[in-house]
Amino acid sequence: MLGAGGSSGARRGGSDRRQRIGRLGEKHAAALFTARGGVVLAQNWHHRNGELDLVILDAAGRLRFVEVKARTGTQFGTAAEAVTGSKQHKIRELATAWLTENPTRWREVHFDVVAVDLSDESNPRLELLEDVM
User: Fold this and answer.
1) Hey, which CATH number is domain 7-129, 3.30.465.60, 3.40.605.10, 3.40.1350.10, 3.30.9.100?
2) Statement: the pTM of the whole predicted model exceeds 0.90
3) 23-34: string of b/e by CB count within 10 Å (b at 16+)?
4) What is the Cα–Cα distance from 23 to 62, expressed in whole angstroms?
5) Three-class SS string for the chain?
6) Is 116 exposed, middle or buried (0-12, 13-18, 19+ CB in 10 A)?
7) What are the residue ranges spanned by the domains of the chain?
8) Angle at 22 between CA 76 and CA 9, to 5 degrees
9) What gap in Å lies between CA 122 and CA 6, rounded to an integer?
């Protein structure tokens, strides 16, 4: 049993904060796409190999797999820098799995990153990086 003040609780608290920041970033990213006429087809889509943050059908009918990277500062690098080559490979694998489960004929498929700066949570800054993979 974990104690209330033990180090495991501190790690869990950090994890809770990261999850809260991640979910907040995803909420802002989804709002960005819906404001542009897009539809969220999936959010936090889980597969045995991982999770897709957002799957969007944009206003032009293009399917967009969106990786959301939220940050509260730059001490760990920028949000876009966090999408490494191995992360891109994993997103492509997950996209293939999603497409297998959702076999509609998509006109175009794109891979985007939304970097969400939450250093001031009341005034988030979003940067959409389209077709980055």
Assistant:
1) 3.40.1350.10
2) no
3) ebbbebbbebbe
4) 24
5) CCCCCCHHHHHHHHHHHHHHHHHHHHHHHHHHHHHCCCEEEEEEEEECCEEEEEEEECCCCCEEEEEEEEECCCCCCCCHHHCCHHHHHHHHHHHHHHHHHCCCCCCCEEEEEEEEECCCCCCCEEEEECCCC
6) buried
7) 7-129
8) 80
9) 32
pLDDT tens profile 74-120? 666 666 677 888 889 999 999 999 999 998 887 789 999 999 988 88
